[in-house]
């Protein structure tokens, strides 16, 4: 019993407000993590698609000859699936007998940064 003669049972208003604030902070953090996880999944899906497209383009240029659309600059520009690409081929100054193909892929829908890929191939030889 207290001085007022009543037994105290239950929670005070301050305790309930503190508990609600802690719960709100926890739920906000959980929802934010969920949103970040979904954004990461979307971004990684786009990166995976870009890597697969780049691998396909690079493989075709490694197996078959690189055919530039601009022969003076030795560049190729075009589309592949949902991507626009620009590729440049030239002799690698550090390695005799090898060409370096540099590929820049950009999502046609936009919103994603362009990605760059590079691959060496035998100069002038079809493998």
Give structural notes.
The protein has 127 residues and is α+β, with helices and mostly antiparallel strands. It is 40% helix and 26% strand. It has one helix and four strands; from the N terminus they run αββββ. The radius of gyration is 30 Å and the shape is rod-shaped.
Short structural description:
This protein is of the alpha+beta class and about 130 residues long. Helix content is about 40%, strand content about 25%.
Continuous helix count: 1
Q: What helical percentage do the residues reach?
A: 40-55%
Q: What ranges have pLDDT less than 50 throughout 5 or more consecutive residues?
A: none
Q: Describe the sheet with the most strands.
A: 4 strands, antiparallel
Shape: rod-shaped
Give the SSE string: HEEEE
Mean pLDDT figure: 85
- Give the tally of β-strands: 4
> Roughly how many Å apart are the termini?
93 Å
Strand content: 25-35%
Q: What's the topology here?
A:
Elements: H1 13-63, E1 75-80, E2 83-91, E3 98-107, E4 115-122
Antiparallel strand pairs: 1-2, 2-3, 3-4
Key descriptive features of the protein:
127 residues; alpha+beta; four-stranded antiparallel sheet
